[in-house]
Amino acid sequence: LGLIGTITCFFRSLMEKNAEYEALALIYWDTKMQCFFTYVPKQTVRKEHVEADLRDCPYDDNPRYIRYADIHSHNSMDAFFSSTDDMDERGTGLYLVIGHLEKFFPDVEARISCGGSFCAIDPGEVIEGLAGPAPYPAQWRENVTPKKPAAKPRRGFRGRSGAPL
Fold this sequence. Notes:
Radius of gyration: 24 Å
Order of helices and strands: HEEEEEHEEEH
């Protein structure tokens, strides 16, 4: 399971029969190990709100680690950036929201913020997913030959009387 798949499983675990909660995860790049990893800060959550304490994050002040993205859930709600998100995400960075976690393929929205100016981007450009160049062996594609449909016979054009022109 990839990083986003693991985070999605975590977010889904916060959807219970009678209650569902948002949550926040931070994605970092480890410059020494050359890999991404996830950090989940201490947080208090409700259905439509996350209050995270980022003061004790062990990675933000260490030059070895680069924060790659903040990602939060919208449980069974639409994936969108709320006015609260607009206030919280004014720092320069990559931000993602995952919604409709009850679906097999949840919805994902992504944007870049630079000082509170936002630019929506395709999530497939910044996280692994179903899109991308050939995530399967090339031979699979080579074994499939598309067959074009037979051409349909052409019909003549008829005037209003139904007789050919």
